[in-house]
Amino acid sequence: AQSVTQLDSHVSVSEGTPVLLRCNYSSSYSPSLFWYVQHPNKGLQLLLKYTSAATLVKGINGFEAEFKKSETSFHLTKPSAHMSDAAEYFCVVSGGGFKTIFGAGTRLFVKA
Amino acid sequence: DAGVTQSPTHLIKTRGQQVTLRCSPISGHKSVSWYQQVLGQGPQFIFQYYEKEERGRGNFPDRFSARQFPNYSSELNVNALLLGDSALYLCASSLAGERNTIYFGEGSWLTVV
């Protein structure tokens, strides 16, 4: 069985400060992990993915995530937030069957 | 290249009616999956089709059905609509199966009144 838990429903940061969005996963298999972003009234855009290669994954728009098997975590970070980063972020786990599981999402607010 | 395209983008239906949503995958992608996203929640997996066969099904009632055509496009059908079926329905495509990146369309907004 697979599951994914996003530890914060909302995160608020000031523009120019670091962003940390936390994700823990559970999987009986070696998982593939993804982060997607969804801007209001839009579809989902892939930020980055981990598929058992390098544990530190770099994505678009300056985001990166580190796969830590011992902690079963895949936290998303960005060194400096921009106003355009304000959106909903989803951590996703896939593998061990044709089913992709989404976390509940973390809403990121960026203050000027 | 065109991304995943979905139609219609918005529609309003009455309780008890039936709806068909359509999806065209990215060229070369053979896997299509469907998700329901209720306002304020994350997407919930409904179906995945690969090579025209159902390969996965989420926890949805039998009122929900889907199929994939020889050109890999797909339709999602929902019968006997309920108010709770109001949601954004997202289609995604990927090259093959479970470990490939899935690419999403913009979705179809369904409102049931």
Low confidence ranges of chain B: none
- Beta percentage of chain B is over 45%
Give the C-alpha Rg of chain B. Answer: 13 Å
Number of strands of chain A: 12
Overall structural class of chain B, as computed from helix and strand content, comes to mainly beta
Give me the secondary-structure category of chain A: mainly beta
The helix/strand series of chain B, from N terminus to C terminus, equals: EEEEEEEEEEE
> How would you sum up the global shape of chain A?
globular
Order of helices and strands of chain A, N to C? Answer: EEEEEEEEEEEE
SS strand fraction of chain A: over 45%
Q: Biggest β-sheet of chain B, characterized?
A: 7 strands, mixed
Overall description:
The complex is a heterodimer of chains A (112) and B (113). With 112 residues, chain A is mainly β. Helix content of chain A is 0%, strand content 56%. Chain A is built from no helices and 12 strands. In chain A, strands 2, 5, 6, 10, 11 and 12 form a 6-stranded mixed beta sheet that branches. In chain A, strands 3-9-8-7 form a 4-stranded antiparallel beta sheet, with no helix packed on it. Chain A has a two-stranded antiparallel ribbon with strand order 1-4. Chain A starts with a strand and ends with a strand. The model of chain A has no long low-confidence stretch (mean pLDDT 91). Chain B is an all-beta fold and 113 residues long. Chain B has no helices and 11 strands. In chain B, the strands form 2 sheets. In chain B, strands 2, 4, 5, 6, 9, 10 and 11 form a 7-stranded mixed beta sheet that branches. A 4-stranded antiparallel beta sheet of chain B has the order 1-3-8-7, with no helix packed on it. In chain B, a hairpin with an 8-residue loop joins strand 9 and strand 10. The termini of chain B are far apart. The relative contact order of chain B is 0.33. Chain A binds chain B through residues 32, 34, 36, 42-46, 49, 51, 90, 94-105, and chain B through 31, 33, 35, 41-45, 48, 50, 55-56, 58, 90, 92, 97-99, 101-107.
